[in-house]
Write a structure and sequence with these properties.
This protein is of the alpha/beta class and 333 residues long. The protein is 38% helix and 16% strand.
């Protein structure tokens, strides 16, 4: 038996728990094909379904790249998470401007949002099983509630409920998620809880909460995540970890001199992945999916972010696509 055959498939290991997914680009479905087919049973398009990619110009939709991911997933019996319909980033400026170059009116922006959601959701109806309908609408600043995005400024807070209603009207079977980062941090968790409770009280069709999971090898603590899972579970919605990666750098660490991770970093990361997945398995009743934001360390958004010129090693497979210690701690339990 080759060493590759001895490596258990992640999806098989978790078949009694939840699907294991990866964010993919239209390129890495080719470059990372073997890992994807062996270990992952769900995909999210990294960028290809975002507003500026799929709907770059007024009335002009570009489905080719998103389609290639959907077709890849379908050909290989994988689930498809849709990401994302309404976000303050990667949305063309022209969406918020009218034909005279002035700020779009509320009615105009609402009708553009509706057209976008209806067109994209209907194209993938019955194929994309869940959507991150609204991404990152909560403000990071202390007591401020909603992020002061153009969506909020022009439409008002009702833009969030409208987005869910439009999506639900087109595909009533799709599970609709609110997705955000730092969602386990108490300051933000309380605001997300408030938002979802308000939506539920109004009878808005929302089914899930996406905790992005852009964490690092020191933060957040398992207790903080556990507390957040307990809290969110009380809302009665399903929970997914939608964008998991564990940077090897603590916040504020700006070193850029490393060309490879230290053994201490890899050991800490393996310990963290082990304890996180132990927790996730414990919460399999409320967690319905865990998606990594990437596949292997050669391609990650954390190269150059948040520190320019710095590499990072946040995933389960190394730059040569070999399993890391972190992989074994997740897959063997
Ligand atoms: C956020 C978005 C993702 C992605 C990451 C960074 O978490 O939800 O789509 O853009 O930032 O790569």
């Amino acid at each position: 038996m080759s060493s590759d055959q001895q490596v258990v498939s992640l999806c098989d290991a978790y078949k009694d728990y939840f699907p294991i997914g990866a964010a993919v680009s239209s390129r890495c479905i080719h470059t990372h094909r073997d890992l994807l087919l062996r270990h992952f049973c769900s995909v999210t398009a990294t960028n290809e379904m975002k507003f500026s990619s799929i709907h770059p110009d007024e009335g002009s939709y570009q489905f080719v790249l998103a389609d290639s991911i959907v077709e890849f997933a379908e050909a290989n019996d994988m689930l498809i998470r849709g990401h994302t319909l309404v976000w303050h980033q990667q949305t063309p400026e022209r969406v918020f401007i009218d034909s005279d170059g002035a700020s779009a009116s509320r009615d105009l922006l609402l009708s553009r949002m509706r057209d976008h959601i209806e067109t994209v959701v209907s194209r993938y109806k019955g194929r994309v099983y869940c959507w991150d309908v609204v991404n990152e609408a909560i403000d990071d600043k202390g007591s401020d509630y909603l992020r002061p995005s153009k969506w909020l400024q022009i439409i008002g807070p009702g833009y969030i409920e409208k987005a869910f209603e439009y999506a639900h009207a087109v595909d009533p079977d799709a599970l609709l998620f609110y997705n955000d980062y730092n969602a386990v941090a108490p300051y933000k968790r309380e605001k997300i809880m408030r938002l979802i409770t308000e939506l539920q009280q109004k009878g808005i069709p929302i089914h899930g909460i996406g905790l992005q999971g852009h964490w690092n090898i020191y933060w957040p603590s398992v207790d903080e995540i556990r507390y957040a899972l307990d809290d969110y579970a009380r809302l009665g919605l399903t929970i997914q970890i939608t964008e998991l990666d564990l940077s090897v750098f603590a916040y504020g660490d700006t070193r850029i001199d490393l060309t490879e991770p230290t053994s201490e970093m890899m050991e800490l990361q393996a310990n963290r992945y082990e304890e996180l997945f132990r927790l996730f398995r414990e919460y399999k009743g409320v967690i319905s999916g865990v998606t990594f934001w990437g596949i292997a360390d050669d391609v990650t958004w954390l190269h150059n972010f948040p520190v320019r010129g710095r590499r990072d090693w946040p995933l389960l497979f190394d730059c040569e696509h070999q399993p890391k210690e972190s992989f074994y701690r997740v897959a063997r339990f």
